Fold this sequence. Notes:
Blueprint: E1 10-15, H1 19-23, E2 32-42, E3 49-57, E4 67-70, H2 72-78, E5 85-88, E6 91-96, E7 113-116, H3 119-134, E8 139-142
Parallel strand pairs: 6-8
Antiparallel strand pairs: 1-2, 1-7, 2-3, 3-5, 3-6, 4-5
Amino acid sequence: xxxxxxxxxxxxxxxxxxxxxxxxxxxxxxxxxxxxxxxxxxxxxxxxxxxxxxxxxxxxxxxxxxxxxxxxxxxxxxxxxxxxxxxxxxxxxxxxxxxxxxxxxxxxxxxxxxxxxxxxxxxxxxxxxxxxxxxxxxxxxxxx
Length: 144
């Protein structure tokens, strides 16, 4: 199995830890899920990558400003199921790549990723996160 290079817009399979799980003392998420890499920065000190991911969920948002619906055509191209999917903008995980929560896909042995988000969708994701950060409405859980 070859790990993909971490790139913004790449959708990976990852054991995401929600803020409510972390607040209750959990150190590992309950479920593997697709997550989009939002940031992948190489540290000058040691060359390791710091990655930030946003989770994909089936759960419709209670506040439309905190999520971005993924078009069905994009879900299909990524190999996601035919349900509706949202990218959460207000819940993020930060970790050193590849970390211990990167998981192989169960449907395609040897792959850890689903593919890339289209550039326009990634830009909406990025802008949405930046706007929520300006309003101090993002929760970033460090997983290092």
